[in-house]
Write a structure and sequence with these properties.
Blueprint (H helix, E strand, L loop, with lengths): L1 H18 L1 E2 L1 H5 L8 E4 L3 H7 L5 E3 L2 H8 L5 H8 L10 E4 L4 H12 L5 E4 L2 H9 L2
Parallel strand pairs: 1-5, 2-3, 2-4, 4-5
């Protein structure tokens, strides 16, 4: 019984982990899906140095928790970012340079009850390589 339960849990968690990963192809297609939000959690200095993925908006990692928590109401969010605060089930993809900070941001979003947050694991490094930048 314990072994089969362990296998079921492992299988479930593995599928759940895969569900929270966004692919290069999905990010490439984002201009056709304005209902999806792409957040780049790198600092402004990094973005100035490298550029950013088209359609992405910058919310640095150290601002994610406060920005997406109930501490920031809808009006303040719009003032800060120029678009409506996403609902808890909004489709959100997070990127950074290599996927490490974006996973940290996804973890924060999930702690805040955002149920549809995904890490673009390849992030800027993969995007730039595949785009020839």
């Amino acid at each position: 019984m314990c072994a089969s339960f362990f296998n079921w849990i492992s299988d479930f968690l593995g599928k759940r982990a895969n569900m929270s990963i966004a692919t290069y192809e999905e990010v490439l297609d984002l201009p056709n899906h304005p209902e999806k939000l792409l957040i780049d959690v790198r600092g402004a200095d990094e973005l100035a140095e490298t550029g950013q993925i088209p359609t992405s908006v910058n919310i640095p990692l150290d601002h994610v928790k406060k920005t997406f928590s109930s501490e920031t109401n809808s009006e303040a969010f719009v003032r800060l970012h120029g678009f409506a605060k996403p609902s808890l089930d909004h489709y959100i993809i997070v990127s950074c340079r290599t996927g490490r900070r974006s996973q940290m941001a996804v973890d924060i979003l999930q702690e805040l009850c955002y149920t549809n947050a995904r890490n673009y694991k390849g992030s800027w490094t993969e995007w730039a390589a595949k785009q020839g930048k």
